Amino acid sequence: MADPSSYRPKPGQIPDSPGVYRFRDEHRRVIYVGKAKSLRQRLSSYFQDLAGLHPRTRTMVTTAASVEWTVVSTEVEALQLEYSWIKEFDPRFNVKYRDDKSYPYLAVTMNEQFPRVQVMRGQKRKGVRYFGPYGHAWAIRDTVDLLLRVFPVRTCSAGVFKNAERTGRPCLLGYIGKCTAPCVERISAEDHRQLAEEFCDFMAGRTGTYIRRLERQMTDAAEEMEYERAARLRDDIEALKKAMEKNAVVLADATDADLMAVAEDELEAAVQIFHVRGGRVRGQRGWVTDKVEAVTTADLVEHALQQLYGEERGDSVPKEVLVPALPDPVEPVQEWLTTRRGSNVSLRIPQRGDKKALMETVQRNALQALGLHKTKRASDLTTRSRALEEIAQALDLDSAPLRIECYDISHLQGDDVVASMVVFEDGLQRKSEYRRFQIKGFAGQDDVRSMHEVITRRFKRYLAEKEKTGEWADGENALTEDDGRPKRFAYPPQLVVVDGGQPQVAAAQKALDELGIDDIAVCGLAKRLEEVWLPGDDDPVVLPRTSEGLYLLQRVRDEAHRFAITYQRTKRAKRFRASPLDDVPGLGETRKQALIKHFGSVKKLRSATVEQICEVPGIGVKTAEVIAVALAEATPAAPAVNTATGEIMEDEEYEADPVPDTTEGSAQEPVSAGASNERRGQEP
């Protein structure tokens, strides 16, 4: 690892102007390319104290051995040069989108004498009309097969066409009516070109006029008793409508737009793009990237725009590009897109209406893509084994931690403080072993004390089970209940992970020390920089950015966080649904519902007299008096207030929805594990 000060240029040597810079390693390989509005300010930020740099940036500058730059006139030129260098040098520390294969387009070769409809990939050619891109080539072929009935344009290769010219016999499509056979002069070159133009017009979204014209022709043919022609036109209309159904209208006014959404965590990001042409979704594509550098959502959007439109020109760049976050500054990127298209391009965030609704759909696709990617990665046995070995090596464990337990604390402004315990065995979730805790030892918010309490309670149960059964090898059923189910806290982990830094780790270790447990390792994963903290260490363990061990620890931590939030939200919802009528002795659910139905709300019931309450069927005078007293003594719950703005908050503002569980084998909501424990009386 190099010392950045050994190659740091003097501040006076760096120009204070827009430009693009390259970091090179000791072998002169380019490892990072970046652009800046001010080269001096940007490069100076890399040469500060290493402790103040993001871990990924720190790794990059210590890997580099030199830096160089190129001055340009404008930020737009910097954007173009940055893209060119990233494509040329493929730097290891830049954002790289995987699975970026060339997506297929439906192409019509209008530059040929007899235009041909075909699937095309790669660089676009002059004189060729493109539609798409599509997610799969078979989607193009299905659409073309339907349209050839109405627009029998040539689809054969040059070799097949020349062979038909030589022999005077068309191919099979010519015999079955799906090609006008220009190879044997059944149609002139001018008429065939007109047919290809109509095909392009239909694919461009101008469908209504053409179908109405066919319907009029069908009606006229029927009136003239040309029933065979009318039937053929009817079948043509059905084929066109079926092709249109494959590309349902999602945006009005024949809008041309690309919608981009990003789903990300600290380590990876998934990008999804929907291509809307003529108001219809014509294609979809997506990428997954490792976040090698410290990037924001806006940075990811900018990199994706470069990747998406770097090779595109003309109509391939739409009039509108809708994104979840705007690059900062947005003007150079918008100007660059305008240059690529040749006319104005609107780059913005959708705020309302159909475009915002469609953006939400794209976002769901991005979340699903990221979850699927993580599931595939986690389900690989070799990868899981490598992750456990890396954790053991980084934490100096005697063996791989086959059972990992992770704990997280969740609360809302100090209320409804709960904790979660999730279990991973052999790198996979063990949901039947999940547990959840209510903090009982004190009131208020104190994550450190909460962590100490939870670890103490969990391992007291472990010691109790151990004392009850003796050594684990004693007896065949030492670790199971009479019905064969595992005892609730019988199995000890090899590693305890807590969500947090030094304070939480120290609290967990103190709890184990107080219980006399010295054979269980403890570590913490701090969310901000993904640093691993060990008890008593002043410096964290920084796992390599590409480490499978770090990925597994992050996945365990995120699952504990999700499970804790789910439980906390459930408790909060129950508290909000609580009614003063719950405290009235002898008042069952049926009579409570009757009271609410009669008066409409607890507020109106509170203002009612005893005589009015007695009007409710099943409510006597004594019961009515008890209800009136209970409601008078009960104080209405104060609304929750946003401490930052002073505004009353709705329930939905308290917490974000829990992260959907997309891991393997998780068809049910993970909270069901805890819910079943509650029904069995197993909540700690």
TrEMBL record:
Annotated region described as Disordered, given as residue ranges: 642-684
Chief location category: cytoplasm
Q: Where is the composition biased (Acidic residues)?
A: 648-658
Q: Where is the UVR domain?
A: 208-243
Enumerate the UniProt keywords alphabetically: Coiled coil, Cytoplasm, DNA damage, DNA excision, DNA repair, Excision nuclease, SOS response
The record's annotation in Pfam families points to: GIY-YIG, HHH_5, UVR, UvrC_RNaseH, UvrC_RNaseH_dom
InterPro entries, alphabetized: GIY-YIG_endonuc, GIY-YIG_endonuc_sf, GIY-YIG_UvrC_Cho, Hlx-hairpin-Hlx_DNA-bd_motif, RuvA_2-like, UVR_dom, UVR_dom_sf, UvrABC_protein_C
What is the designated name of this protein?
UvrABC system protein C
Q: Which organism is it from?
A: Streptomyces vastus
Name of the coding gene: uvrC
